[in-house]
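My hope is that you will study the record closing this message with an eye to the fold:
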Amino acid sequence: MIKLLLFVAVVALVTYYVVRTLQKRGVLSQGAQRPGSGSARPRRVRREPPRTVAPDDDPDFLRELDRRRLHGDDPDSP
C-alpha cells in the first residue's frame, strides 16, 4: 500500500513539473490553437488610460501651482 501511494505521489510531481515547464515555455497558453478546434480567439487587451497617482505627478496641477505662485492668485496667501 505504501509503495502505491509513493508511486502516485511521484507521478503527480513529475506531471506537475512537466506541465509547469510547458507553461513557462509558452506551449500551453490560453490562446493556443488546438488541432481540430477551429480558430483561436485573440485575447482582449484592456487598455486603461494612465492614472495620476499623486498631485505632483499631474502636469495640470503643477502648471496651476506655478501660475498661482507667479501671479499671486492664491487666496490663502497673506
Summary: The helical segments are 2-25, 59-71. The chain has two helices and no strands. The radius of gyration is 29 Å.
